Every structure is written in C-alpha cells, then in structure tokens.
Amino acid sequence: MTVAGEPTIRQVSEQEVVITVGEREFRIAAECPHRLGRLVHAHVNPRTLRVTCPLHKSVFDLATGCRVAGPVSGDLPVTEVVPEHRPGT
C-alpha cells in the first residue's frame, strides 16, 4: 500500500516510465542515458523532485530532465503530465 505523498514509479511501455509525486506526474525515458539503467527501479526524492538511477547513481531533476549529479551523460527526457491531459480526468 502506498503512503499518501510517497512517490510511485510504474513502467508503462518498454520506452517509458511514469513517476507520480503527490499530485504531479512525470513521464520519463525507461532507461538512464548514462548506461541504460532501468529507471523503474530508481529512487525518487519527493522533496527535491530528483530521480536517481539505480545503476551508477546519476541524478536527474524531474522538472527539467537535467543531470545534476553522477557520471557524465545526457539529460533525461521528461514530460510533466498536466491534470487535464491525464487519462480518466
């Protein structure tokens, strides 16, 4: 059972993962741009809105997709889903 406000990560396709933090939802690539770590197993910090790859600990800002720490790599493609564009709303 998920505690209110606790981030959730779910794989929605081979190429995409959805991260939900509170009322916010982000669609990101399923693999880290550094060494293709599977981001469905990532750690999400709900306070800073940062996601950490489980493989080599690259850290990305969910609001921008920019890498903020970890091995040099490209940025992470991120799209924030606004409520009126969510299925079922």
From TrEMBL:
Domain Rieske positions: 1-82
An annotated Gene Ontology molecular function: 2 iron, 2 sulfur cluster binding
Keyword Isomerase attached: no
UniProt KW keywords: 2Fe-2S, Iron, Iron-sulfur, Metal-binding
PROSITE patterns linked: RIESKE
The name this protein goes by in its record: Rieske-like 2Fe-2S protein
